[in-house]
């Protein structure tokens, strides 16, 4: 390994700027041979992580130095927006040469980024059998098991001998038709999935034994329409490396590997996080200002409408506020604490729903616990805030209003924040939507009503606070 390769073959936080600087310098001075060696000493994932650090001319030079096999792996590590940007500057022949190096599931993922005309052109260049496998994956919508599955696998008859299975396996590996194969799948005459054999077991067994004698029976499988979030949960619950995909008759269609599920977990977590903030998932460095603004505007508009509703509730207490002006600034404390408590409850419950930890048997306990936690925190925060308010104003009435407002608001925050995601899930709506204006505004309205309502009662009874 030369100096460049030896120094930069691993990507860490420490050498990240050095690698970017080296690659940029080699592009600038056009030392393409050194550039090629430096790039190929990096893992394709590392280059994908560095991709945003290079400008357009540098990117073109980098792509020109990558081998087809390396470029293919690199493309699978990029997000769809980054791939689309690359494809806009390349012809379909260039794209096909790179896709040839990939497995069917990765090819399908990339083809979804292309327009139908380019997709059809590329599919026609594959052989008929391979095209059929890719089309089988493409017919399933994104986010399903069918879209995740790979058609590259080894399926054998239950009557096949270990010797013949090993021979088939060696032939496929020799022609580079299988990657990351963990299991051989066993099927019956109708190609129905009946079991699997770990590859390591093939090596240890006698060559004369048959597949049905050593196979593990089929126990866990999914249909192609199954949601990818459910698929990820199955992988987690059963500690799987590979999951068979079968149709309604049990016919083996393909399998999903754990590396694809890792991507799903990241995608689902990112999606939930962004939805909690009412933000779209597209990459900010790819979107224009107008696109980013348009993606966030609906949530901001809804928030404006709900905040106006909260303000309308406050107008019912104009007379109270005019008598005790100190109540107005304290309302921001009530609203802020209620909003934070709501977000805490929503985040915990949405996460638990995503992990399948909440069901019909324990949902009431989960809600009760969240309400209890918020209430305890409300009592603690309310007491502390009341002491501060009394120390500053020397008016017990205002301090009492502060205490009751915070306790009630945080109680409502725990109740609404925990119940609303569950209700939305029951109506087959996205629970992450609960973290938006719906929950926080409802909490604000209730908190303001209690805070100002208590103040109004005290003023009516005692003539002041």
From TrEMBL:
It holds the Pfam family MgtE. SUPFAM superfamilies: CBS-domain pair (SSF54631), MgtE membrane domain-like (SSF161093), MgtE N-terminal domain-like (SSF158791). Residues 215-271 form the CBS domain. InterPro entries: CBS_dom (IPR000644), CBS_dom_sf (IPR046342), Mg_transptr_MgtE_intracell_dom (IPR006668), MgtE_N_sf (IPR038076), MgtE_transporter (IPR006669), SLC41_membr_dom (IPR006667), SLC41_membr_dom_sf (IPR036739). Keywords: CBS domain, Cell membrane, Magnesium, Membrane, Metal-binding, Transmembrane, Transmembrane helix, Transport. CDD domains: CBS_pair_Mg_transporter (cd04606). GO terms for cellular component: plasma membrane. Coiled coil: none annotated. It is found in: Cell membrane; Membrane. PROSITE patterns: CBS (PS51371). It is a multi-pass membrane protein. The keyword Protein transport does not apply. One of its GO terms (molecular function) is metal ion binding. It comes from the Bacteria. SMART domains: CBS (SM00116), MgtE_N (SM00924). The chain crosses the membrane at residues 371-390, 397-420, 432-459. Homodimer. Belongs to the SLC41A transporter family. Acts as a magnesium transporter. This is Magnesium transporter MgtE. The lineage of its organism: Bacteria, Pseudomonadati, Spirochaetota, Spirochaetia, Leptospirales.
């Amino acid at each position: 390994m030369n100096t460049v390769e030896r120094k930069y073959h691993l990507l860490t936080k420490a050498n990240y700027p050095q690698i970017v600087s080296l690659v940029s310098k080699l592009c600038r001075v056009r030392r393409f041979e050194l550039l090629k060696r430096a790039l190929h000493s990096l893992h394709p994932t590392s280059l994908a992580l560095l991709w945003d650090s290079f400008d357009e001319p540098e990117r073109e030079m980098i792509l020109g130095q990558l081998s087809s096999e390396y470029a293919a792996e690199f493309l699978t590590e990029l997000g769809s927006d980054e791939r689309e940007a690359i494809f806009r500057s390349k012809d379909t022949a260039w794209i096909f040469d790179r896709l040839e190096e990939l497995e069917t599931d990765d090819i399908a993922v990339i083809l979804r980024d292309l327009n139908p005309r380019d997709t059809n052109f590329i599919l026609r260049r594959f052989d008929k059998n391979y095209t059929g496998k890719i089309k089988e994956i493409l017919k399933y919508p994104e986010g399903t098991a069918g879209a995740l599955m790979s058609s590259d696998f080894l399926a054998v008859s239950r009557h096949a001998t270990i010797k013949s299975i090993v021979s088939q396996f060696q032939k496929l590996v020799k022609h580079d038709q299988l990657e990351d194969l963990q299991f051989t799948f066993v099927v019956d005459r109708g190609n129905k999935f009946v079991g699997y054999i770990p590859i390591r077991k093939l090596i240890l067994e006698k060559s004369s034994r048959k597949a049905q004698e050593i196979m593990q029976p089929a126990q866990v499988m999914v249909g192609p329409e199954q949601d990818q979030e459910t698929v990820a949960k199955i992988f987690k619950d059963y500690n799987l490396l590979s999951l068979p995909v079968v149709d309604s008759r049990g016919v083996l269609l393909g399998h999903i590997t754990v590396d694809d599920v890792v991507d799903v977990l990241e995608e689902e977590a990112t999606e939930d996080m962004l939805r909690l903030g009412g933000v779209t998932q597209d990459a900010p460095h790819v979107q224009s200002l107008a696109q980013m603004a348009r993606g966030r505007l609906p949530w901001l508009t809804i928030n404006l409408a709900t905040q106006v509703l909260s303000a309308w509730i406050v107008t019912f207490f104009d007379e109270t506020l005019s008598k005790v002006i100190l109540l107005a600034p304290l309302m921001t404390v009530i609203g802020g604490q209620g909003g934070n408590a709501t977000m805490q409850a929503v985040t915990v419950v949405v996460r638990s729903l995503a992990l399948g930890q909440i069901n019909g048997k324990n949902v009431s306990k989960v809600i009760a616990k969240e309400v209890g936690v918020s209430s305890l925190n409300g009592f603690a925060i309310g007491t502390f805030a009341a002491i501060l308010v009394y120390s500053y104003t020397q008016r017990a009435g205002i301090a009492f209003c502060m205490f009751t407002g915070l306790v009630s608001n945080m109680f409502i925050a725990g109740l609404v924040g925990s119940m609303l995601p569950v209700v939305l899930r029951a109506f087959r709506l996205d629970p992450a939507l609960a973290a938006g204006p719906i929950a926080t505004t409802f909490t604000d309205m209730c908190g303001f009503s209690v805070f100002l309502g208590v103040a109004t009662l005290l003023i009516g009874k005692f003539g002041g606070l």
